[in-house]
Each structure stands twice: as C-alpha cells, then as structure tokens.
Amino acid sequence: MEGAKEGLATAVRIMPYLVAMLAAVGVFRASGAMELLINVLSPITRQLGIPPELLPLALMRPMSGSASLGILAELLRTYGPDSFIGRTASTMMGSTETTFYTISIYLGSIGYKDARYILAAGLLADFTGFAVSLLICTLLFGR
C-alpha cells in the first residue's frame, strides 16, 4: 500500500514536466520548425554523405519515442526495411534514447532543476549513436 501511495505521489509530481515535454514536441512539429531545420541542414548532410531522409528521425528521436517511431514507420513504408535508409533508421532507433523525455521524467520526479551536464552528455551519446549507426550500416550494407 505504501509503494502505491508513493508511486501516485511521484506520478503527480512529474505530470507538469511530462505535459510540458509533450507540448514542446507538438509545437516543434506543428509550427514547421522541424521542416525549416531540415531544409537548412539538408545541403550540409548531403555534402557529408548523410541521407537527408534520416534528418527527421535524428531530430525527433531525442525528444519523443512515439513521434520517432512514427517517422521510422514512414521511412520503412517509403523506402522498405531492406534499403540503406530503412536499415540505418532502424539501427539509429536502437542506438539512441529519448533524451529530453527521459531527463524530464527522471529529474522531474526528484525535483532536480540543473540538467545542463546531463543534457549535454545525453545529446552527445545520441549524436554518437547516430554517427556510429550511419558508419556501421555503410560498412556492412554499403549504399
């Protein structure tokens, strides 16, 4: 009984952080900011040999697991699971974390406010996961 009471109190404590995170993701996608950012980054990623089709997944994965799962499903439907983009996107999904969501839930549950080092480490880990996924898939499957 005590554990259930404590769990309910934790759920109530993290609710504002969760709602804020989900609202931010919704605003980011609905405002067109994601498309604008992709349009700005696409020429750079093409120069680096990164398919621009993977950019929406790379931008959304640190924020939302369900949104990135939807992007993955669309990539798989469009390009197929055995394509380079499908394999790389699948590897990226398995190699990264929903950093902002995780930080907001865990730190919100304990009331911790200063997340700058945790955020930097999490985003660096996500970037590394994306880069290594691209490298491994290129080495194993070619283009």
Structure, explained:
The protein has 143 residues and is mainly α. It has one domain. The chain is built from seven helices and no strands. The protein has helices spanning 2-30, 33-48, 55-60, 65-79, 84-95, 99-110, 116-141. The termini are far apart. 24% of the residues are buried. The model has no long low-confidence stretch (mean pLDDT 85).
Q: Characteristics of this structure?
A:
single chain; 143 residues; mainly alpha; 7 helices
Give the SSE layout.
Layout: H1 2-30, H2 33-48, H3 55-60, H4 65-79, H5 84-95, H6 99-110, H7 116-141
Q: What's the average pLDDT?
A: 85
Order of helices and strands: HHHHHHH
| Tally of alpha and pi helices | 7
Gross morphology is elongated
Question: What is the structure about, briefly put?
Answer:
This protein has 143 residues and is an all-alpha fold.
